[in-house]
Amino acid sequence: MARRGLTEKAIKAAKPGRHYDAAGLLLRVSPAGGKYWVQRLTVRGRRLELGLGNADIVTMQEARDIAHENRRRARAGDDIITARRKGRTVPTFREAAEKVAELHRPTWRSSKHADDFINSLTMYVHPLLGDRKVSDISTADVLAVLSPIWLTKAETARRVKQRMGTIFKWGMAKGWRSDNPAEAVSEALPAQARDKTHFRSLPYDEVAGCIAAVRDSKAWLATKAAIEFTILTAARSGEVRNATWAEIDLERGVWTVPAIKMKMKREHRVPLSTRAQEVLAEVRQVQDATGLVFPSPRGKTLSDMTLSKLVKELGFDVHVHGFRSSFRQWCQERTSFPAEVAEAALAHSSGDEVVRAYARSDLFERRREMMQAWGDYLAGRKAV
Fold first, then answer.
1. 51, 173 in Cβ contact below 8 A?
2. Does the predicted TM-score (pTM) go above 0.85?
3. Strand order in the sheet with 248-249
4. 3-class DSSP state of 363
């Protein structure tokens, strides 16, 4: 079927995105590393995308054989969609939600998140769509769910939309849908007034579980390393994503961020914990000519969206910047380190101008103790 298509080696090494084979067959790789076969096909005048299954289960040759047969039948005028659904039980949205929650529960690491997932759908979606087949729900149906709460309960509405999308993506992978109406509805919804000064954070006792889920994902190595390094150093995402090897002193265990890259325009020294140094050693595998510590697969700076999207796809509804808040709360509630040490770690200015003029020390050695304690806490050892 495909003379110049994909190879087994290319499939194994495929990065997030779409990778084309031939005759409409392509491999879709999610940011989290999931690989799915999809076929673009015209059936009775309708341009469709058919899910052919998970690439971990359906081999390349099997996908090609199925695609070849679909193409033959489409040319003969067969109604492939109806035939695909015939004889198989398509779940209701309520049933699909329960199944998706069950599948994701091991990666969420928190029963509270699983409860929130189901409860939000039960309250806002199930009354309208719960008993509808997951294959029969349209963009208009999703709009009917979201419109009443989109502006009045903005954060809740965004979570509901994202969770509905997760269920529709599962339906696509199962072959019951060819689209995700939760994505298509975005253009029909008005812009929300969002608070840009606060980022959703994770309780500090759930951060270790998030790191574990990131490590276990199939995402690009530098993406996973950047997220963990950001958490371990309590740094801003932009500082980490733009970090270069020239700023790292592995012998002394120090990362020196130039003033030009800092929000406060002052050079900032970051003490590296044992685990932070281990992360740097691991990410050396993808070192390239750019000099970036955490390069993208294309040799560019990783985007903030890439990091946050991976975390959210793994079931943690937080922004990467929010881990700074998780760290600060841990300092306050679980340690005896003074507030000014924690603030210095976050590169915040403390006190008025007079106080700052006399406080010349950056409290580096105290911060080294604190960042090591944070790393130990995340590794399952108690803070000192």
1. yes
2. no
3. 248-249, 254-257, 268-271
4. coil
